[in-house]
Please model this.
Amino acid sequence: GERTAKAERMFELMDGFLKNDPLSLQKDILDHVEYTVARSRFSFDDFEAYQALSHCIRDRLIERWHDTQLHFKRKDPKRVYFLSLEYLMGRSLSNSIINLGIRDQCADALSQLGFEFEVLAEQEGDAALGNGGLARLSACQMDSLATMDFPAWGYGLRYQYGLFRQVILDGFQHEQPDYWLNFGNPWEIERVHVTYPVKFYGTVEEEILNGEKHQVWIPGEMVEAVAYDNPIPGYGTRNTITLRLWAAKPSNQHDMEAYNTGDYIDAVVNRQRAETISSILYPDDRSHQGKELRLKQQYFFVSASLQDIIRRFKDVHKDLNQFPDKVALQLNDTHPALAIPEVMRVLVDEEHLGWNKAFDIICKIFSFTTHTVLAEALEKIPVDLLESLLPRHLQIIYDINSFFMEELKKRIGLDYNRLSRMSIVEEGAVKSIRMANLSIFCSHTVNGVSKLHSELLQTRVFKDFYELWPEKFQYKTNGVTQRRWIVVSNPNLCALISKWLGTESWIRDIDLLMGLREYATDISLHQEWRMVRRVNKMRLAEYIEATSGLKVSLDAMFDVQMKRIHEYKRQLLNILGIIHRYDCIKNMAKDDRRKVVPRVCIIGGKAAPGYEMAKKIIKLCHAVAEKINNDSDVGDLLKLVFIPDYNVSVAELVIPGADLSQHISTAGHEASGTGSMKFLMNGCLLLATADGSTVEIIEEIGEDNMFLFGAKVHDVPTLREKGSTIKVPLQFARVVRMVRDGYFGFQDYFESLCNTVEGNNDYYLLGADFESYLEAQAAADKGFIDQEKWTRMSILSTAGSSRFSSDRTIQDYAEKTWGIEPCRCPL
Amino acid sequence: GERTAKAERMFELMDGFLKNDPLSLQKDILDHVEYTVARSRFSFDDFEAYQALSHCIRDRLIERWHDTQLHFKRKDPKRVYFLSLEYLMGRSLSNSIINLGIRDQCADALSQLGFEFEVLAEQEGDAALGNGGLARLSACQMDSLATMDFPAWGYGLRYQYGLFRQVILDGFQHEQPDYWLNFGNPWEIERVHVTYPVKFYGTVEEEILNGEKHQVWIPGEMVEAVAYDNPIPGYGTRNTITLRLWAAKPSNQHDMEAYNTGDYIDAVVNRQRAETISSILYPDDRSHQGKELRLKQQYFFVSASLQDIIRRFKDVHKDLNQFPDKVALQLNDTHPALAIPEVMRVLVDEEHLGWNKAFDIICKIFSFTTHTVLAEALEKIPVDLLESLLPRHLQIIYDINSFFMEELKKRIGLDYNRLSRMSIVEEGAVKSIRMANLSIFCSHTVNGVSKLHSELLQTRVFKDFYELWPEKFQYKTNGVTQRRWIVVSNPNLCALISKWLGTESWIRDIDLLMGLREYATDISLHQEWRMVRRVNKMRLAEYIEATSGLKVSLDAMFDVQMKRIHEYKRQLLNILGIIHRYDCIKNMAKDDRRKVVPRVCIIGGKAAPGYEMAKKIIKLCHAVAEKINNDSDVGDLLKLVFIPDYNVSVAELVIPGADLSQHISTAGHEASGTGSMKFLMNGCLLLATADGSTVEIIEEIGEDNMFLFGAKVHDVPTLREKGSTIKVPLQFARVVRMVRDGYFGFQDYFESLCNTVEGNNDYYLLGADFESYLEAQAAADKGFIDQEKWTRMSILSTAGSSRFSSDRTIQDYAEKTWGIEPCRCPL
Ligand SMILES: Cc1ncc(COP(=O)(O)O)c(C=O)c1O
Ligand SMILES: Cc1ncc(COP(=O)(O)O)c(C=O)c1O
Model:
């Protein structure tokens, strides 16, 4: 009766989906200018046009997102939940428009209104909710999960301040908070009613229930988690999945009494501090400082996500025993590993399952991916901290550990050394919980992020575990999404590839890219290829001039090293190499200088705020640049630029313009590396050590297609043992001495930096690798002169990059780790 | 060329204003459900429908608001800026729809979609950014300013938490933070680019500029003020003005250094605390505690508003001497009085005007309205606090005071007593700045809020000033807007009035209301009038049952006292009167009981969290209610209900349902009172003392048309002197004793409360007024039995309320104080 009348009315008013012809787009844009951005249709600037356009795209995303969620609900497939504390999404506008397939229509619509699409896209700030590789990987994988129609959810934290902005003053790094939400964020949907209470502190008490003893957690504090959904559209599909990020809000359900006693204003201000939990991303990508706020973030994230996941399961299913048939939980590093004791707590304390039953479920649902290479870098949580913040979880972890130790003893007997190495609890000055050990024991699968990484895990870091449970260990080499790293960021190359392959299908089916090999020597491809590369270099050169005032020659080789600043990544090796090159030019006869291949050396990356050596490397880079760039002897033969505030958008601009890129970590220190893959895809040649995923890149494109150098993984321990007895090349000593002697100024400041690479201190083997580094650089110079050869190598690099698409990574995960299948939303 | 092409394109795409037929409204609502609320068109609940509808109305408001702002810009009239730290707006949906004139269309559109307009309107939470009368007055005046087409702006603070929610537990008041923004606020437009830096702390240094000495403030801290615009639509006009509220955000322009030294996380967390400035409304409407946070709020508000106002002036005018021709600044009480030294600082330190020139401008732009009755309650700021937070402002205030003292000496000679009474600086244990004295000296006009208030100001509080500058002193009796207080909240009465007056014009032209006098004895109006009142009582009775479980009889007299709990407002007198009535009923013969007029006594209101006596009054009310409501001897003859969490929405529900309302402050304590006006408009009879605006209500409707009692203003001092020698009626002693003796429990807790009304302590003269209070109550009972008389009185109350429309108040202000004229936006 009435209900049908109502439903009919609604159907009548549905005139199908939003239209994407330029006229409809224009109308929608102008409506958003007036009603959403609240500006006049007749006067709005580029930023306001960006906002309006974004809302117009958001509307279209929402349509697909609704349909996808409804479809998943109807089909009820097994779902994967990707738990990560970091996502480096970058900008969303271009990516969304491309994945929706309406780039041209949008550009047309805008140009008639007097706006340029590219200019508007530049208005968007980066969503930088992560530090580096791990976080960008999460973002790439979300894109692949959506494109490949997998029923997947990402969960994360909605930091109010993303990764700090790097500002350079006098060559020193300063950190500025990243107020990324200050101008609104059209890419998220606030879900004011999707909230969960998250509890902290308090005590554990024993209760008798049905004659049985139960542990009950009586929490002392409560905050509210509010969901913000970020729709992630797939390419060439209607599927649009959810990245759900949680923000902390003061809870209004709790401790009302507090307000009848003390000072009302104080009480409210204190409670408001709850929001601090989700306010800042920890700006360190390798070290863990055991800070309470960080632990709070982790649990806040885990608790809210699991409440949501369990709620979704229970909406449809009654029996928790079916949980593993419907749910896969992926731990992105150990950051979300508190999910293990949290699920145990819910199953045992709240759902009253028996311990064994509960643990059985745990072992079927979790898979764990580690990004760490060194045992020392594994995350540990001080027991004291955990005991005060999450007393019940500590108990559960202890219980899991007892069980684990019993199992172990059955397998290996009373080998106390090994037992104590493998134990989840680390005794010592600061008693701690080893999150990796917990994660390995409780996961059905442990993944490394490259073949080499996996070998290191099996033979070094997790040897004890591997020997007992070899079947748990797998690896899925990282990948990057060609949608963002070619289609969005290098439209000219994208068009070129499609033209030569005769199809755009490679955008969803990356293996087709290999088809380019066929034309690797085709002269007319060569011409077009070089043209595309030159246009990209021009764009980069303009950016360099705009940001640093430096004019660079397009004929020079653009040599890029952009990534987080770390001693192991050896930006210092690069800088010392540049000093060497400079020194050579200075000492050359004028005539000889004509033979030098001109270089523009580009370095970029952020240092963790507390990482002193990394900050000194940044300063050294600036000091050296100051000298070189102002030396008229050198001119265009050598330039050094530091590009500040490296982030996804900067990467999108720089990578397509690079001729050569450096990935020169000391072998055995980079778990995978994904930066290299992006350069590779874009036809940039690599100058690299055989570390992380580079080993597999070599397998794909061959040693001859790149510039390889340096010690191999198994050489490293030996070299380190040798220490100061290694004969270091004279040139190396010379360039270090130049720094020491104040040739670039700041003599005192650089002293400690110089110390790190001399004698027994040279842990990262800069001295040992210097000679072969210079040789590789010389080979690159030589290669660059032969432009035909270089172009062929460049084409083969792109053609050989298909193995490094995150589509392949995700396909592997789906099949071999998560056991999920595509669930495609009909059109 | 290109620009015209672009403009033409935009005109083409403008198909005029949004349409308001039900079909267009439905389409817009469903679009907002899908794209703004991000729910499915086929499944959304009442709250989501409310959100969608609100956005749909917001779109329409934005259209008018744009046009109005553009019109003002073109015409450039003199503008009034209303500066108030508090606005009690209540809900916006119904009000907006009514002012837009599309109530029926909306109701139709919704009902076809299966929703009821009234139900959706109930979903909205109150915007409660104020304490009581002063704040609601600001809101009413904004409505009048918009309706009467004045070029006006309201400025205020966007508190993240409004006035606390009152929760009653066991009869005690508890305070809950009011998370009013948690579910989004469609009624504001975030203006991310309208931001100003606001500075605090630091030092003052001397600089030489062009050979002249200048004082320069070197601030130590900076936060950012972001604007949120709330469109305020007028009724029967296109004009839609702006209420601009400021929120505090951490500033990103400042102290970058901080981040290269200490701990990055700590630094960001500390900076984030900037947001605290605008987070909480101080929940006290009469006392000032000299807290730093409060002072910060005041200056934050003043500084941001003035930057905005001066920027707007300078966009068009070069010469600051014209400022007074274009700008009127209205100080709503002394809360924004820092605007005076701030304008001086800008003119002298930043614009480099001479001191005299600057002070001349000051004296032409400011007008000041005081809401205070007692000298003791005037706001003072400790010099220490000001010196640390705003060192330059303190200097300027000192300079103003020196100038003031010199002027005074010329007029009154060396009368040091008087000089020190009038000085802006108060010496004493805590050296302080008297904000009222500053405001009076620097304003061209000082307004009281009722005739009686004005007399008190002239003869007591500001006698010294009045004698010297009588021409400065005016009064504008407060008013309330009939749009909200009849049209929105009492639609049945609204329709009835329009029917009998034959026009709806009274909604803009309130004097027409007097036309009802003609029909005051018309029997058929009587019938309809009573019917309307009964329906409203029914709605109120349902609310009472829903919130407290108490069933009340519609035949009883609904007797309401709802307002902030204060000793001077004498809720205690009311309760003691109720105890007396209860006592009488208990002691009556059964037969006599039949003659008793049944009563439902309704009390409501919030106590400031730190105001102990007010909280005890609330508890006493509950204790007495507990006794009476459960006494079967009493039955329907007497009920006592406390309605919790009094706010604008509750007022809108309760006022139309009241037969009698009490405004019983000790004479000389209520500056005006606006609650009484709302009851009056709705045909509720008043039981009142001759205090505040009641004196003028008497002038309008006559003493016979209400129930007046108690000491008059000039009696009060004499009565107080008499103190315990006054003969207090026996009944009074008896009811107080009942409380003392624990008849209602909580004997110890109530002891101190009882002490406040006995003997010399009875400052508010409850004892002295008790007898005449009971007589007035008896007269009300008698009046109620004669329903014809009562109805006539009720009609005459409404008919006589036109003088108390805020339209009249604003007309007076515009003519006599601000010197502004209407500026009507063409249709
Ligand atoms: C902003 C950003 N940071 C870090 C990385 C990871 O770089 P790498 O794998 O070279 O350390 C990437 C990858 O492109 C990136 O875009
Ligand atoms: C919520 C609220 N508080 C306070 C007041 C002021 O009431 P009074 O003037 O009776 O103190 C009003 C007026 O209606 C109101 O609506």
Q: What stands out?
A: The longest helix of chain B spans residues 46-75. Chain B touches chain A through 73 residues (CB under 8 Å).
